Amino acid sequence: MELPFAITLDVGSSHANRTGSWRVERPIYVDRLPPCNDACPAGENIQRWLYQAEPGDYEMAWRQLVEDNPFPAVMGRICYHLCETACNRAQLDEAVGINAVERFLGDLAIERGWSLPPAGAESGKRVLVVGAGPAGLSATYHLRRLGHQVRLVDSAPKLGGMMRFGIPAYRLPRAVLDAEITRIVALGVDVELGHTVQDIEVERNDGGFDAVFLAVGAQLGRRVEIPAGDSSRVLDAVSLLHRVAEDDPPLLGRRVVVYGGGDTALDAARTARRLGATDAVVVYRRNRERMPAHGDQLEEALVEGVTVRWLSTLSRFDGDRLVLEKMRLNDEGFPEPTGEIEELDADSLVLAVGQDTDLSLLDHAPDVAVDDGVVEVLPTMMTGESGVFAGGDSVPSERTATVAIGHGKRAARGIDAFVSGRAAVNADRHELATFDRVNTWYYSDAQRTRRPELERARRQSTFDEVVGGLTEENALFEARRCLSCGNCFECDNCFGVCPDNAVIKLGPSLRYEFDYDFCKGCGICVQECPCGAIDMVPERI
Amino acid sequence: MFQVRIHGRGGQGVVSAAEILSVAAFAEGRHAQAFPSFGSERMGAPVVSFCRMDDRPIRTREPVMEADAIIVQDVTLIHQVDLFAGLSPEGYLLVNTSRSFDELGLGEFFGEFHRDRLVTCPATEFALEELGRPLPNAALLGGFAALTREITLDAIDTAVRERFAGAVGERNAAAATAAYRFVTLAEEELVRAATN
Amino acid sequence: MTTQPVRFYQVGSFAVGNRLLPDDDRTVQSDQNRTNSLDSGHRACQGCGEALGARYALDAAMRATGGRLVAVNATGCLEVFSTPYPETSWRIPWLHSLFGNAPAVATGVAAAMKVKGKGDVRVVAQAGDGGTVDIGFGCLSGMFERNDDVLFICYDNQAYMNTGVQRSGATPPAARTATTEAVGPEPGNVFGQGKDLPRLAMAHDIRYVATATVADLHDLEEKVERAMQLHGARYLHILVPCPLGWGSAPNDTILVARLAKETGLFPVFEAEYGKVTAVSPIRHRTPVEDYLSIQRRYAHLFGEHSRTDIIARIQAIADQNIATYGLIDDEADSRGQKEVTA
Amino acid sequence: MLRQIEGSRAVAETVARCRPEVVCAYPISPQTHIIEAIGAMVKAGTLSPCEFINVESEFAAMSVSIGASAAGARAFTATASQGLLFMIEAVYNAAGLGLPIVMTLANRAIGAPINIWNDHSDAMAVRDSGWIQLFAETNQEAADLHVQAFRLAEELSVPVMVCMDGFILTHAVEGVDVPEQSDVDAFLPPYEPRQVLDPDDPVSIGAMVGPEAFEEVRYLAHLRHLDALERIPSLAAAFAEAFGRQSGGLVRPYRTEDAETIVVALGSVLGTIKDAVDGRRDAGERVGVVGITSFRPFPLDAVRDALSGARRVVVVEKAFSVGFGGVLSTDVAMATHDAGCSLRTVVAGLGGRAITRRSLEEMLAAASRDELDSVTFLDLDHGIIERERARMGATRRSGPSAENVLRDLGTVASWIG
Asked: Do D207 and C72 touch (CB under 8 A)?
């Protein structure tokens, strides 16, 4: 059709008008570091695996997860989830139940028998890993994936370290632990149990290892010197938990007092309840606010009938009488004695005042620096001795399984660089995805899903798992509460809200790109991006 | 060309009268033109309509200033409107009234005209009789045919029936015939009077 | 990918798209193959709410009609920025005639389609608030009254923006325009004036009347789709912020529209045959200050000589709307789920 | 078939036979009968398919027509006077968009003072709108022009206004041979739009055009009118061949051969003028008349040719430009400016004032004596004018002239012509 001049125009002709020239600022897509990822000691890409779980693609989510951490099912039970503390959603309503989703994925993987990614192509390098706790197993896993041969030794008869011998079964069922360890071993690991390394230098040289990873943990329960009439009725929490784990529980009596304020103290008290104690009393020098144990652990303990004597310290243990002195906190928050005395009936006393590391295997390794009972390491986890790396409870850090797993990963990377003769490079960390960048309007209001809890009566007497897992529906719901902070989750907002159609949608999982020919730089996309994954930057003029 | 002017009030069928007359002329094979001089379309307002008949095409569009015939449908207009302006000395006048010109006070006024061309006719009475409604236009056209002989009663009859369908046409035609007869008789009377 | 019984979709229906939703529940705007009825290269200001609203509405109408759509446009910003010779931004058949006659022109198009046996081709007429509530109102009322098969969309930016921000019958009280300057004891537009066109439309007892904002795409698209399912005269009133005329930041366009709704100043509802049938409840009730203070047209109410009295009067209007339309709903917060379930 | 029929009826029936597809109606005297009749035909189903739309104003009537025409339908409406002015924005727009709408204009005066009677002020007010304006002399021509108008409009994509004098033609009952359906169908092909709103081939109609192209757009519109100057005579010829009678064309001379004085006029008054011309010829004066059928486009060449032998040109027109004089006269002057003839304007028939043969003949006699003023208002009552001017001079609050004049005249009902 020959159209009337000027008045009637053909479609598409406005593409000749490149309105992008109006722009003084341009939007760019960014990936920011979500606070959960930032906080995760194991370096998990939590936002990413939640994203993959959101549409129900659990295997992909799990695979993303085990890129960093081979213990989802274990983590989903015993991790103290700093991620949730950091979670931006906590500022909106309540943090995403990341830990529960992790457990769901971990359990599902065990149920469905998903395998870890295979070992990498053999590098010909050999690494000795001493200690088969979370740090050692994590390092083993990552080293295998990098193609290095691993010899994993532990003095205990079973793999797992503190995960097996420190954490009670009601928190971490052994079948779960075994399943996840088995998967790692299946990658092809030379395991030697019941073998205590006496001298690391000898062991390294004899075996011709290219590198060593020390992950011997902190297995020695610390003692406090108190006058005790019958020392046989005093034991340390580590030993108690270890013996329970080995099915050899000590006799504690009806009235058990646990001294200490950490998670181990609570584990000991709760274990005592399960071993038949009618009274399980935790004695702690400070108040509740200053207790190092995690809040939910305390809650669970209290629910199970454990009681706490706050602001009390041990003076004396006479037969079946424990003498306590009341304390008060000074201005700095330190406990000071008051001179006020109380008495408590006790059949046994469990000390949970910390653990020490047995570093005797380093006696002939002068280059490995030890300070305050722990090994000094570089950021790559290498000690003062070239090729010797250390991690877990035996290096200065918070002593949790998650931290240890993170150490294992980092050490594996450090070792990989070392044995390859490369300098270790730390990946650049993206800028933090802060809450102020989140446009909360877009997120549906939804409360966090509660994990079902075993009814109180049942868990007082058995070592059955206390905290249940999520149903699939709940896990999905929880995953979808994720704000995806700082990372595009393809909500199409930028694509939709652009008045100039200057956002090109590339298709599922391919995200978007800007059409700078037409983008006028209004910034609506930036403002309306729910998760803060678009930045506005000045245009170069 | 024969030019007719019809005076009346809105609602009395003044405009229709001119149109019917033109249709009658057309039916007789003549050229005809009818048109009103309109005001707003309201009942009761003075209305004038015009009709021209000719054997040649009619070109003029002026109102009928010099009438060959004037039909007055509403006698009450006599003192309001210059009804007889431009009436040719040879012209015809047909007034719808049951009264005489003398009774109307017009007797002396007509000195210059042919007295036998000035007729009153109680057309409204014929209309009431036939139609039951005071619409005198068809009757007056019958009277006009009798008075002027410019058109046949047959043609009026045809045009009236063309205008009004069915029984209404029938009754209007009857009223026209009645008026025709009345005027014919009145004419004869006048002619007689004139000859006497 | 599994289909879940879970009713929670992360961004629910608040964001444009949602990969977690079934295809049918996704917005037209999230579709890679959307029409882009109003395409790139138009000359609207940065952050133009009207450009956005027009594409939202017409793309939705295109989907609802299977692409059998004609748009008629009144004179105004939308017309000027979309079709300056030699370039048009429209990808659909489009006709601009005059400022005040879009409803009648649309009637003509609809009549032509009917008479041509192309009754499947549907007609949308669109105008700004001036072309709707003022100069176009006569034709609009006629179109309504005849119940012509036209969806009329008003893109309400509350003043004559094309000519440089003069007051219209849709300009809200206290707003500064070039003809209601922020001077004198009662600065800005006066109180107690203005036309509530949705209610006037309802008074015609037409099939469907709805309001919407560019801040809630799902709602807007559903209303367009609903409108296109129906025949006869229909009216959709979309609030489209104008960064230029309102003095809002270009990137705040959607935020401002959202606040207009959340404060209660712009009630979002649907009506059929003159009766309100549904309202979009306020999700987070917001004081009007939050809305007013980010627009320079209300700058005279804030700052050193702040006019809390005037702000209170505006708040009273919002409160009245909330009461009149029942905009506060206990279930409002779960709407994201409710809608998907429905 | 020749029938004695009201002009409006004849036009309505003719328009119906042109198969309009969308017809808009808004009542204004004196065009109402046309639209009423078409409405009844649509309602009865005898005109189908056709959408008959009762709109709320003339502005809407033209706007609906614009929409319908742009969507490919043959659109028709009718109006007059104030109605045309109320739609004037849309009238210009239809032309600007090149939409071949046909509209009957039942010419009527424009108020104030409000006046429902005939003159040409309305048509002159849209003279520059871009519409083709054809003036009918008789009802036969009014009917015939509509058939030609649709074809002309659609061939050129230009709207056409058929102007017929209100009441004088619209309400006159006279013999008209309403074109037969089969003949109209043969003469007028279906509407094939040059641009159309079609989802299968989308275009944007009605762009904003700036200084860079506006003049060209206007010039193209002008060229289409120049094309129309070619098409109008050939369509009239084709029409004559098909229907056996002369209607339309550009100009129509009558007794202009050897005429010293030639009258120029538009519309129905030509009939009365012809009678007057005959009268003056009988009195020995060499007088003729040229009727202009196509006022826009204005046939400069044809008018120049038709007036080429005249010593005097007298333009009789039913409109005038206040403060200036004739409207048609200026156009005629443009055609004759180098012809060496004198040009006189006679303004007549304003607001329905009867133009009588007698007055015309007196005026022509005066013209032949070269006694005519350059602008003459025919049958102007100078007494009234003087009295009113005296009143106005005497007192500031002399009141509205129209009412004063009526008071001077006495009762309105005494008026005949």
From this structure: no
Give span(s): CATH 3.40.50.920, chain D: 251-377
pLDDT in tens, C243-277: 999 999 999 999 999 999 999 999 999 999 999 99
From chain D, the residues in CB contact with A4 under 8 A are 97-98, 157, 194-195, 220
CATH number for domain D251-377, candidates 3.30.565.10, 3.40.50.150, 3.40.50.920, 2.120.10.30: 3.40.50.920
Peptide bond into D112 cis (omega under 30): yes
Q: Do D174 and B46 touch (CB under 8 A)?
A: no
Number of H helices, E strands in chain B: 6, 6
Q: What percent of chain A has pLDDT over 70?
A: 97
Instruction: List the one residue out of C179, C157, C154 whose CA is nearest residue C260.
Output: C157
- When pLDDT is averaged across residues C62-74 and rounded to a whole number, the result is 97
Give the list of residues 6+ apart from residue A289 with CB closer than 8 angstroms, or none: none
What is the rounded average pLDDT for all residues in chain B?
A: 91
**Phi, psi torsion values for A127, nearest 5 degrees:** -130, 135
**Rounded-to-integer distance, Cα C37 and Cα A21, Å:** 22
All domains of chain A in start order, with CATH:
19-31+488-538 (3.30.70.20), 35-114+439-479 (1.10.1060.10), 126-167+177-219+357-420 (3.50.50.60), 227-353 (3.50.50.60)
- Look up the domain containing B28 and give its range: 2-195
CA distances for B107 relative to A484, B4, B120, B147, angstroms? 110, 22, 12, 18
Q: What is the CATH number of the domain that holds B143?
A: 3.40.920.10
Query: Nearest-CA distance from C318 to chain D in Å?
Result: 35
The 10s digit of each residue's pLDDT in D52-109 is: 999 999 999 999 999 999 999 999 999 999 999 999 999 999 999 999 999 999 999 9
Helix spans in B35-165 (H): 101-104, 123-130, 137-148, 153-163
Region for D379 from its dihedrals, namely left if φ exceeds 0, alpha if ψ lies in -120 to 50, beta otherwise: left
Q: Quote the number of domains for chain B.
A: 1
3-class secondary structure, B31: strand
Q: Do at least 3 CB pairs under 8 Å connect B with C?
A: no
Does B10 reach chain D within 8 Å, measured CB to CB?
A: no
What value of ipTM does the predicted structure carry?
A: 0.89
In chain B, what residues touch D165 (CB-CB under 8 Å)?
61
Report percent pLDDT > 70 for chain B: 97
Q: What is the mean pLDDT of residues D339-364?
A: 95
What domains are there in chain C, each with its CATH number? Answer: 23-341 (3.40.50.970)
CA distances from A372 to A197, A259, A345, A360, D16 (A): 21, 23, 36, 14, 108
Q: Let me know: does A285 contact A327? Beta carbons within 8 Å.
A: yes
Q: How far apart are CA D275 and CA D280, in angstroms?
A: 9
pTM: 0.91
Chains that touch B (3 or more CB pairs under 8 A): D
C-alpha closest to that of A446 among A89, A202, A46, A40: A89
- Cα–Cα distance for residue pair A195/D299, rounded to 1 Å: 118
The distance of D195 to chain A (nearest Cα, Å) reads: 6
Using DSSP bridges, classify how beta strands A25-29 and A534-538 pair: parallel, antiparallel or unpaired.
Answer: antiparallel
Tell me which of A2, A8, A15 to substitute to probe the interface with D (most D C-beta atoms closer than 10 Å).
A8
Give the whole-angstrom CA distance, residue C15 versus residue A444. Answer: 10
D interface test, pick of C59, C92, C116 with most D CB neighbours within 10 Å:
C116
Q: Grade residue A4 by pLDDT with cuts at 50, 70 and 90.
A: confident
CA dihedral D85→D90→D93→D98, nearest 10 degrees, is: -100
Domain with CATH 3.40.50.970 in chain D: 2-197+205-243
So what CATH class is D2-197+205-243? alpha beta
